[in-house]
Specification:
This protein has 8 helices and 14 strands. By secondary structure, it is an alpha/beta fold. It has a domain of 231 residues: Alpha/Beta hydrolase fold, catalytic domain (Rossmann fold, 3-Layer(aba) Sandwich). The strands form 3 sheets. An 8-stranded mixed sheet has the order 1-2-4-3-5-6-8-9, sandwiched between helices. The chain has a 4-stranded mixed sheet with strand order 7-11-12-13, with no helix packed on it. The longest helix is centred in the first third of the chain and has 28 residues. 38% of the residues are buried.
Amino acid sequence: MTAARPAPPDAPVVKPKAPGRRLGIGLLSAISLALVLAALAALSLCVRPFTVAPLTFKTNVVADTTNDQPLDISAALYLPRGAAFPVPLVIIVPSSGGVEEEREIYYAQQLARAGMAALVVDSFAARHVQHTLYDQSQLDSWDVENDAIAALRLLAADSRFRADRVAILGVSKGGTAAMNLALRIRRDWMGVHGVDFAAHIALSPDCGWVNRSVVTTGAPILFLLAGSDDQTPPELCLERARRMSEAGNSRIETRVYAGAQHAWEELGPRPEYDPDVENYAQCKVWIEDDGQMFTADTGELVPESDWHAWAAKRCMRLGAHCCGGTAVLKAAATGDIIAFLRKYGF
């Protein structure tokens, strides 16, 4: 047993602390720790399960078309936080209303929560257009398609993403672009070769003013349609899906949500009616492989240089319903989208 060494004369004498004081400090430390942990837990609830970063790229330029200028297109890239790269990617293109929180951004966030990356493309800003609800000639789906194909080329070469698992999703005008990009003839017009979308998701697209050719790349296509849509009637898209299937694509699926209106992502107690919005539901036009357009019923030539004025006189009307969706419907559509993507390896 070793004797304790005496403290130096000038060393302070260390007195033992009373048991009660030690208990008080321990209790205080425990309370402080609990508060810190609670604060961290609250902070973790505020941390989104994804990151968002801006991205800019050049559109796909096609000479002698409306998309013949090398515009810088802005986009927002949503990445699932903590993802093990490479991950699947969904390119989301905008509707006639532009990029909106309750629609394009909502779908991007839900896909990121499901472990997929999402790129929300803004086809409007670079062209100095806010929306095309009252003049669809300001931005054609052709321009949106070329933005999307440029994004596909760029990100398919990015090691963070699975080049064989890049899909496209869009609503209304964006849905038309998502549908059209499955067509071989549109890709030929763009000069696109060697890169394909792995899946196409078209929500309420325009199936009345369409290419006569329906031969696709063979990639799976999902049509999500609103049963009470008076802007893009579901019956025309069901017929479109049937023709695509007959042309050789066996991986086409359709969903019709009974009672739903156009743009059901915007929730509300009832549908809204806008008396000034352009409505092309009565326009039935074939686009031939050489780009010429003819009415489906009479075969009348539609002037390419002034199609908007022609439509205003012949078939376009003003006024349509939209919105008034429910949280249940929106959740069901989201679930259908994710299930479709999972089915094909996303």
